[in-house]
Write a structure and sequence with these properties.
Elements (H helix, E strand, L loop, with lengths): L13 E8 L2 H10 L4 H7 L4 H9 L4 E3 H11 L3 H4 E8 L28
Antiparallel strand pairs: 1-2, 1-3
Helix pairs in contact: 2-3, 2-4
C-alpha cells in the first residue's frame, strides 16, 4: 500500500484556556481572611510559593486554568470571583495534506545533515 492511498485524520482543534486575574489584592484579602500563608495556598494549588507570590503581587497577569482552579479551591471560593477566563481555539491549517509545508514547501525530502563520526 503506497503512502498516497493512506488517508489521515484531519488535525484536531487545540483549545487554549488561560485565566486573567481580576484583582490581585482580592487574592491577598481572601488568603489572609483564611489565615493562610502564600506557601499554604501554593501547596494546595500544587505550585511553588514564588509562582503564587507573582500572582498575588500582580507581576503575573494571566495563569493556566489548572492554577486558577487550584487557587480558587484553596481559598474556598468560585473561580469567577477571582478570574476571567479566555478561550482560544487554535485550528492547525492543512493546505495540501502534507506535513511540514512551512519548512519545506516543495515537499522533497532533505538529505540527512547530521555528521557521522569516523
Amino acid at each position: 500500500m503506497s503512502s498516497a492511498t493512506i488517508r489521515r485524520r484531519p488535525p484536531l482543534a487545540k483549545k487554549e484556556v488561560w485565566m486573567e486575574i481580576k484583582d490581585p489584592e482580592a487574592l491577598r484579602r481572601k488568603r489572609t481572611a483564611k489565615r493562610f500563608t502564600q506557601r499554604d495556598v501554593a501547596h494546595l494549588a500544587r505550585r511553588s510559593q514564588a509562582a503564587y507570590q507573582q500572582v498575588e503581587s500582580g507581576k503575573m497577569k494571566t495563569i493556566s486554568e489548572a492554577f486558577a482552579m487550584g487557587i480558587a479551591f484553596a481559598l474556598g471560593c468560585d473561580w469567577e470571583e477571582l478570574f476571567i477566563d479566555h478561550e482560544h481555539t487554535a485550528t492547525p491549517s492543512v493546505e495540501d495534506g502534507t506535513r511540514n509545508t512551512a519548512h519545506n514547501p516543495s515537499g522533497a525530502r532533505r538529505p540527512h545533515s547530521r555528521k557521522i563520526p569516523a
